[in-house]
Amino acid sequence: MNTLEAINSRRNVRQFLDRPISDADLDAILEAARRTPSSRNEQRWDFVVVTEPDRLARLSQVWRGAGHVARSAATIALIAPVSDDNRVRESVQYDLGQVTMSIALAATPFGVGTGHAAVAEENLAREILEYPEDRFCAWLIALGYPADRPLTPVRKPTRRPFDEVVHRETW
Ligand SMILES: Cc1cc2nc3c(=O)[nH]c(=O)nc-3n(C[C@H](O)[C@H](O)[C@H](O)COP(=O)(O)O)c2cc1C
Question: What global pTM score does this model have?
C-alpha cells in the first residue's frame, strides 16, 4: 500500500475485532510516531501504550466520546508538556496533530484502524497512566482491526467538495 492508498483507506474506526496487534506492528506504528516532524524538532511528546483490558476500560472513561478505547487492541496516549503560554500550546497541538496522522497512516497498511478520543477528565487520565504533574494527556488514539470491514479506499469521503476547498492563486 502506498502513501496515497493509505490516506484514502484510513477512516475513523470505533468498533474493533477482539484481536491483538503484534508487538512488531505496534512498534512500527510507534516508530512512525517518533519520526514525526515538530516545531524546532522539539519533540514535545511521550507515548504511553496501553494494551491491558482493565486499563483500557478505565481509560475509556476520560471522555464521553472515548468509549471505543475500551474495545481497542491498543491505545496510544499522547502526553505533552503543560504550558501557560498560548503560542506554545498551539504549537504543541499542531505537532500532536501530525503525530496523530503519522500513527493513523502507519497503522493503515497493517490493516489496523484508528479512532481519536479527546480527554476531558485529566485527573482520571493521570491516575490511570501515572504521567508527571508537568505533563497532560492531550489525545488518545485507539487502534485495532476494524470490526465492520477491512480498510480499503473510501470511495465517497464525507468531505466538502474539492472545488469548494481548493483555491488557486488567490481565494
Ligand atoms: C481533533 C479530533 C478529535 C476527535 N475526537 C474524537 C473523539 O473524542 N471521539 C471520537 O469517537 N472521534 C473523535 N474524532 C474522530 C472524528 O470524528 C472523525 O475523524 C471525523 O468524523 C472524520 O471521519 P473519518 O476519520 O472516518 O474520515 C476526532 C477527530 C479529530 C481530528
Answer: 0.96
CA 79 – ligand 1 centroid, Å: 18
Distance, CA 169 to ligand 1 centroid (Å)? 31
Best CA proximity match to 98, nearest among 38, 145, 14: 38
Q: Pairing relation of β-strands 113-117 and 74-81?
A: unpaired
C-alpha cell at 53: 483490558
* Interatomic CA distance for residues 95 and 43, integer angstroms: 8
Cβ(76)–Cβ(96) below 8 Å: no
Determine the Cα–Cα distance for residues 30 and 27; give it in Å rounded to an integer. 5
Residue 12 Cβ inside 6 Å of ligand 1? The answer reads yes
Between the CA of 11 and the centroid of ligand 1 the distance, in Å, is 9
Probe residue for ligand 1, chosen from 14, 68, 90, 116 as the CB with the greatest number of ligand atoms within 8 Å: 116
Q: For 94-149, how does the pLDDT look when each residue is reduced to its tens digit (9 = 90+)?
A: 999 999 999 999 999 999 999 999 999 999 999 999 999 999 999 999 999 999 99
**Pairing relation of β-strands 46-50 and 113-117?**
unpaired
